[in-house]
Write a structure and sequence with these properties.
It contains six helices and twelve strands. The protein is of the alpha+beta class. The two termini are 18 Å apart. The longest helix has 15 residues. The strands form three sheets. The chain has a six-stranded mixed sheet. Strands 1-12-4 form a three-stranded antiparallel sheet, with no helix packed on it. The chain has a three-stranded antiparallel sheet with strand order 8-10-9. Strand 9 and strand 10 form a beta hairpin. The chain is globular and about 55 Å long. It has one domain: 4-Layer Sandwich (CNF1/YfiH-like putative cysteine hydrolases). Helices cover 23% and strands 23% of the residues.
């Protein structure tokens, strides 16, 4: 489990960015696959989620997960709304204690947010589609409507695919350039191949929303030695599926 230097200083907060170590799954899912949407045995995924929950807190409620769809949709959980099924969304916000909220990634960018005054937390899954659709901005605007101030929000960008391993095509670049000409800075050419810097794009989304306390954990999920699940690496190895890494946060 990897921790944010900023978030781990806060006493009433638990969090972690988990890689694939320490779980029960086998073969391509070895070992801490936390993805109910994968083709892994559901019993293994359930056990893995229980392992994660216990590492976060022995007294935590069940981990709240989403049915992630690469959107800009988010869910807010307060005392009133009891959500039984995994909603289709890519971010979750709560002010409830002992409720661990989490997102699953396998190269996409996980972001954990904490407002130390309003005691609000959020977990965001930002793949290129969600980032392009401004999921980060949508979540932050909601938090601000709830009374948060940008200067009180801490943001931690978790492990994700690095620019050198995120090859894209020209039509992908055109889509981003059509949105904003300044997006050129997130693309680089190397040996006639085009690459996209997704973590930097996400970082800029935070800055655009006046968030200044930002930490980026620069660990590449594609690089095998870092021991994270990676959809792109699985594709390059002709695997028919891949495990999911979990990033989690909870108010204590």
């Amino acid at each position: 489990m990897i921790k944010s230097k900023n978030l781990k200083k806060i006493k009433n907060l638990k969090h972690g960015f988990f890689n694939r170590n320490g779980g029960k799954s086998k073969n391509i899912y070895k070992s801490l696959n936390c993805g109910p949407g994968s083709k892994d045995l559901p019993s293994n995924v359930k056990q893995n989620l229980e392992i994660v929950k216990k590492k976060i807190s022995k007294s935590a409620n069940d981990i709240f997960l989403l049915n992630q769809i690469h959107s800009n949709k988010f869910i807010f959980i307060n005392k009133k709304n009891k959500i039984k099924i995994r909603p289709k969304a890519d971010a979750v916000i709560t002010n409830q204690k002992k409720l661990p909220i989490a997102v699953l990634t396998a190269d996409c960018v996980p972001i954990l947010l904490y407002d130390n005054k309003k005691k609000l937390i959020a977990a965001i899954h930002a793949g290129w589609k969600g980032a392009y659709k401004n999921i980060v901005g949508k979540v932050l605007k909601f938090m601000i409507r709830m009374g948060s101030k940008p200067q009180n929000i801490l943001a931690s960008i978790g492990p994700s695919i690095s620019v050198k391993n995120y090859e894209v095509q020209e039509d992908f670049k055109r889509k981003f350039m059509k949105k904003n000409k300044k997006n050129i800075k997130y693309f680089k050419k190397n040996n006639n191949k085009l690459y996209f810097n997704l973590p930097n794009y996400v970082y800029s989304s935070l800055l655009e929303n006046k968030i200044k306390k930002i930490e980026t954990i620069k660990i590449d999920t594609f690089d095998k030695k870092n021991n994270f699940f990676s959809a792109r690496r699985a594709l390059s190895l002709n695997h028919n599926d891949y495990g999911r890494n979990i990033s989690i946060i909870m108010l204590n």
